[in-house]
């Protein structure tokens, strides 16, 4: 099984970015956690981060040919990018939307998601654990749908 995690803008700054919201763990900590999960779950996992909308769209399009499903934290693009929505709609890969913080409890402009209607599930406010929940859900979903 080939899975992909895509992280959007500013997630590379975890650990220094608003620690009251995102905590003190770094992006490297997140990557290590995900790699450890993949090894124990016997899943091939690619982890990708970009601050650029077009690169995220390119990665979603490439995933159509290489991945069984993906976990997406589109970060701020969640609330602004119809283009990412359209890429996800085009490739129709199963995916789980994830957010480290509880976006539904934050500023009003963060409470809208362009992608949630396409996602199998949305997980928010669970910190890094939310990624593990998303990957486990996706793995189980894919295992039972094939």
TrEMBL record:
Keywords for this protein: Amino-acid biosynthesis, Aromatic amino acid biosynthesis, Lyase
GN (gene name): aroQ
UniProt-listed HAMAP family: AroQ
Quaternary state and interactors: Homododecamer.
Protein name as annotated: 3-dehydroquinate dehydratase
Site (Transition state stabilizer): 17
Chain residues that bind substrate: 73, 79, 86, 100-101, 110
Keyword ATP-binding: no
Function, in words: Catalyzes a trans-dehydration via an enolate intermediate.
Catalytic activity entry: 3-dehydroquinate = 3-dehydroshikimate + H2O
Catalytic residues identified in the record: 22 (proton acceptor), 99 (proton donor)
Lineage: Bacteria, Bacillati, Bacillota, Bacilli, Lactobacillales
Enzyme Commission identifier(s): 4.2.1.10
GO function term, MF aspect, one: 3-dehydroquinate dehydratase activity
Pathway(s) this gene product operates in, as recorded in its UniProt entry: Metabolic intermediate biosynthesis; chorismate biosynthesis; chorismate from D-erythrose 4-phosphate and phosphoenolpyruvate: step 3/7
Family, as annotated: Belongs to the type-II 3-dehydroquinase family.
Highest taxon of the lineage: Bacteria
């Amino acid at each position: 099984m080939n899975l992909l995690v895509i992280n959007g803008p500013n997630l590379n700054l975890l650990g220094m970015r608003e620690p009251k919201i995102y905590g003190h763990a770094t992006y490297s900590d997140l990557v290590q956690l995900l790699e450890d999960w993949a090894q124990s779950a016997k899943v091939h996992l690619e982890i990708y981060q970009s601050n650029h909308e077009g690169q995220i769209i390119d990665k979603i399009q490439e995933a159509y040919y290489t991945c069984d499903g993906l976990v997406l934290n589109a970060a701020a693009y969640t609330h602004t990018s119809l283009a990412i929505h359209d890429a996800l709609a085009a490739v129709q890969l199963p995916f789980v939307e994830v957010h480290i913080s509880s976006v539904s409890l934050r500023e009003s402009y963060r409470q809208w998601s362009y992608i949630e209607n396409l996602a199998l599930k949305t997980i928010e406010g669970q910190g890094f654990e939310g990624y593990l929940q998303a990957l486990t859900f996706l793995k189980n979903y894919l295992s039972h749908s094939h």
